[in-house]
Structures are given as C-alpha cells and as structure tokens.
Structure to design on (298 residues):
C-alpha cells in the first residue's frame, strides 16, 4: 500500500464525488485556488471577510469540514470559481491539504510539507505549508496552490516551487543550527513570532504531516515552548535527530517516539478561539477517494 495515496483522517474527502474532477495537477490546483480565500487576502480580493467566518473556519482541521462549509455557502461543483463570500476562509495549510486530498483521490501520491517561504516578505522566511507530489519516476516536487492563479507574482512556476524558495522545516533547522541562517528570520513576521523555537515547532509539524497527521499550524503538543529560552538541550538534540533523518522509513520510526507522536488531545493556540484543548479524530486509513476505517487508538 502506498501511504501517500492513502487518505488520512484529515485529508479524507468523505462522500465527495471525484468523477468530475480534473486528473492533472494544474486543474486541481486551479480548483483549490478558486474555492478558498486566505484569511489575509481580503484586501487583495476587495472583500471584507466577516469576523465570525475567521473564527468558524479557523479550526476546520478536516477536508470533510472544509467541504461542508463550502456546500453551505454555495451548493455548486468544486470546479466552479466562487465569489469571495462563497469561499472557505483558510490559511496556506488549508490550500495545501485540499490539494493533497484531491491529488490522492485522483491517483497521485501526495503529502503536506511544513516549512518556510521566502517569496512573501523580503529577507524573511515566513511560516508556510505547501503540497508535495510524486512524479512517476519517484521524484518529488512542491506545489503551492495558494499562489497558483492568484494575485501573486513570484517569478517561478507555483506548481514546481524551487527548494530554495520554500525551505522545508528540517532543512531550515539544519541551516540555523549550522550558523548558515539567522533563526530570527524564521517565523510569522506580522505577529513578531520568530526564532529557533518556532523552527523546531515546524519540524514537528512536518514530521507529523509526513506520517499522515496534518495538524493546524497553531496546534501544539508536548512541553510548551514559546520562545528560545524554553528550549532545553534535550529538545535541541531530539530536533537535530528529526532534522537529520534521511529516509521515509527513518521518519516513520522516529514518529513512534512518544515525544514526537501527536497525541489524541492537543493544544490549539488559534487567534480567534483562544488557547484551548482539542480532541483530534483518530487516525484512519482509506483507499484513494474511498471509505475509511477507524484504527485502534494509540
């Protein structure tokens, strides 16, 4: 079984009829771009996003919830371009998760990657998520559905993002630890969140996503580390190990470590609902576009 063709509890599209979807990456990315508006894109679309939607949509971790909200706002095919007020109000992770879901459902192995983009803010590595998809020759490429066909001019093909323009979290950690990059240039610039502690959080998010647990960007678990001073030598050593992992088998083995596994209950640090505990859906397995079956709790 190809785990990257298998829907996770997060990417599972439920009863979505995929027969009318495009089978090519460009068509699917276009569809995703046309049904989601990033919560920071209101001005770009000349649309004042209602504050209740920011709160409602922010905690929609699962594609089934995204699709439910889309149906409630406009009962129309997923391939039809929507007006801003009919879209799901999301983040980069939601663009990436929906594209990942549709790729898996139509036969292309895909996964989420958490890291940092250099194409939003000059001189800064912004917290960001993209979709990574596998070509028939076994190689992987990065696609950013948020900047595909949208109001962005980044100077490269958003369906083949250069590795130096999107830096996966493990690479970012290695660069910072080696002194080749400044940890103060990694984070969320407009919130003033930055530092090695933030890079560490993305390393854990990326590891989880590679193991089919595609949490929200502000989900946390384990010891609360919200600044560099809170990092211990053990935290740093463990993150060094994850960032150095060189194979999918090693990443799956590492994820079994209880210090790294996402538990059933996490802490959500979302801006709109406040800090709170959230119980996650259990992991599930599924065939592409098919039904899912619950697995025993961890």
């Amino acid at each position: 079984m190809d785990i990257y063709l298998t829907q996770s509890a997060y990417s599972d599209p439920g009863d979505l009829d995929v027969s009318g979807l495009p089978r090519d990456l460009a068509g699917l990315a276009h569809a995703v771009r046309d049904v989601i508006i990033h919560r920071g894109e209101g001005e770009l679309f000349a649309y004042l996003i209602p504050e209740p939607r920011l709160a409602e949509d922010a905690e929609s971790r699962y594609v089934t919830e995204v699709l439910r909200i889309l149906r409630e706002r406009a009962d129309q095919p997923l391939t039809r371009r929507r007006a801003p007020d009919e879209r799901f109000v999301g983040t980069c992770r939601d663009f990436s998760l929906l594209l990942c879901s549709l790729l898996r459902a139509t036969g292309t192995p895909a996964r989420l990657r958490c890291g940092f983009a250099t194409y939003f803010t000059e001189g800064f590595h912004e917290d960001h998520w993209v979709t990574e998809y596998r070509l028939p020759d076994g190689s992987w490429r990065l696609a950013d559905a948020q900047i595909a066909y949208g109001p962005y001019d980044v100077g490269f093909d958003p369906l083949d993002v250069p590795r130096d323009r999107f830096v996966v979290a493990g690479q970012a950690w290695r660069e910072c630890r080696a002194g080749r990059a400044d940890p103060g240039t990694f984070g969320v610039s407009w919130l003033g969140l930055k530092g090695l502690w933030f890079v560490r959080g993305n390393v854990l998010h990326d590891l989880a996503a590679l193991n089919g647990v595609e949490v929200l960007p502000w989900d946390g678990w384990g010891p609360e580390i919200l600044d560099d001073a809170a990092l211990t030598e053990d935290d740093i050593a463990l993150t060094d190990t994850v960032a150095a992992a060189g194979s999918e088998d090693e990443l799956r083995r590492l994820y079994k470590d209880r210090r790294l596994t996402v538990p059933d209950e996490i802490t959500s640090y979302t801006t709109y609902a406040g800090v709170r505990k959230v119980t996650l859906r259990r992991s599930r397995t599924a065939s592409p576009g098919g039904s899912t079956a619950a697995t025993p709790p961890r």
Q: What stands out?
A: The chain has eight helices and 13 strands. Residues 284-298 have pLDDT under 50 and may be disordered.
